[in-house]
Amino acid sequence: MTDPAKVRRHAERVRELVASVVRSQIKDPRLGMITITDARITADLRDATVFYTVLGDAAEQAGTAAALESAKGMLRSTVGKALGLRHSPTLTFVLDNVQDHVKHIDDLLAQARSADAEVQRIAARAEYAGEAQPYRLDEDEDDDTEADDESDDVASAAQERR
Q1: An example Gene Ontology cellular component term from the record (predicted)?
Q2: Which residue of 5, 39, 44, 106 could cross-link 14, Cys pair, CB 3.0 to 4.6 Å?
Q3: Domain boundaries along the sequence of the chain
Q4: Of 54 and 151, which is predicted with more confidence?
Q5: What CA–CA distance (Å, rounded) separates 16 from 23?
Q6: Is 4-95 CATH 3.40.120.10?
C-alpha cells in the first residue's frame, strides 16, 4: 500500500512537471493561455489526472484540449523519467471548470447583496405597529400606584360606614 503523503508529493510533482513542459517545450499553435490547476494520481501511481483551465472561448478550449492530447506521449515520458517510477503514469487531461464555479458564486453573492439592500431599504421605512414604546415606564407605574391608593381610600371609607 502506498503512503498518502507520497501520493500527494507525486501528484504535486506531476502538476509542476506538466506545467513547466507545457510552458517551455510544447510549441503547438493550438495551445492557448493554459494554466495547470491541479493533478491527482491514483494510489498505485499508474494513472494521473491533470486539471487545467484555458483563458478564452470554447474554440480555444477545444484547440488546447487537442494540443494536449497530441503531446500526451511526450508529457508522459517526461513525467515518467522525472518521477523515477517503474511505470510511467498515464495522463488524462480534464478541463477544470473552476471559473464557472467562481462566476456562479459571484452571481449568488450579488443576489444576496441586492436582497440585503432591499431588506435595509424596507426596514428604513418601517413604522411601529402600535405605540413606539410598548412597555410601561416608571412614570406609568407611579400613576398606577396613585390609582391604587385612591381605590384603597374608597374601600376603607366604605368599611368605616358599616
Answers
A1: cytosol
A2: 39
A3: 4-95
A4: 54
A5: 11
A6: no
